[in-house]
Amino acid sequence: MTRAFLSGMWLHVVQFSRNPFDLSGVFVWPILYASIAYYLLDAKNDPKLLLSASLGAAVMLMWSLVVIGSSNALENQRWLGTLELLVAAPVPFAVVIAPICVASGVVGGYGIAATLLWGRLLYGVPLTIAHPFAFAVAVPACMLAIGMLGLVMASTFVLYRAAFSLGIALQYPVWIATGLLVPLSTLPAFVHQIGWFLGPYWGFRAIRAATLGSAPWQYIGMCVVVSAGYLVVGAACLRAFVHVARARGSLKLT
Question: How many CA atoms lie within 13 A of 144 on its CB side?
């Protein structure tokens, strides 16, 4: 299963690098998000706020690539008629789907470098990282947490035939609930509590804490905890939803 997971992740990373739609998102979205954040915040005299906004834009990109990438991959498998073969394979279906989600998060890691470099060159945002080692650990932890949350979301795509449309719709609720799009202080208290169960919430705070100099390890630990929880929930949901889809005969497109 380990070999299947690593091989699948490498395969999907290569596919992402060949897909014009994914490449346009990887190269354009980080720059677009960072520019919007810069002008929206209008914090030219607050470098830390601008740097935090750039990191938030990068995490937004990660989540977009994960949820859209996994939904698009499953929809393509259904269109090609290979989804039934993947479900019938001896390897657990979760091991087949998880590499798609994690590979999307790995590709989205480019967004961190792109947004920081774009902010530095165009807007003069400082690139000083207070805790380099913690930052090097926080980025993969964030990728893993977002990728495993994508696994939970991907389980619903097995039942929903218009998976790509659902993937696009799931971007914005997570952006809002994790404080990436608007500050949580402006939203009702229950929204903040929802964010505690979402990987991007802890991943963003881990990267931001490591960059700005506060304590990042508690957030990194939470990334690991929620990732393990997502893996258990996602695998259980996949088994249940695949059973329902096979009973209904709805895996096939027609």
Answer: 17
Q: How far apart are CA 11 and CA 77, in angstroms?
A: 14
DSSP string, 140-188: HHHHHHHHHHHHHHHHHHTT-S-HHHHHHHTHHHHHHHTTSSS-GGGS-
Region at 182 (left for phi over 0; alpha for psi -120 to 50; beta for the rest) = beta
The pair of three-digit structure tokens given for residue 49, joined into one six-digit string: 């706020």
- pTM of the predicted model, to two decimals? 0.83
Six-digit token string for 172: 């914005």
Own/partner contacts of 188-191, CB < 8 Å, gap of 24 or more, are none
Cα separation, 203 vs 194, whole angstroms:
15
* Radius of gyration of the CA atoms of the chain, in A: 18
Q: Measure the N-to-C terminal CA separation of the chain; round to a whole number of Å.
A: 31
The three-state secondary structure class of 74 is: helix
Q: Please tell me what DSSP assigns to residue 123.
A: I
Q: Residue 2 CB: number of other CB atoms within 10 A?
A: 7
E-only strand ranges, the chain: none
Angle at 20 between CA 69 and CA 99, to 5 degrees: 30
Distance CA 210, CA 54 (A): 14
* pLDDT, tens digit (0-9, with 9 covering 90-100), for 167-198: 778 888 888 888 887 778 888 888 888 888 99
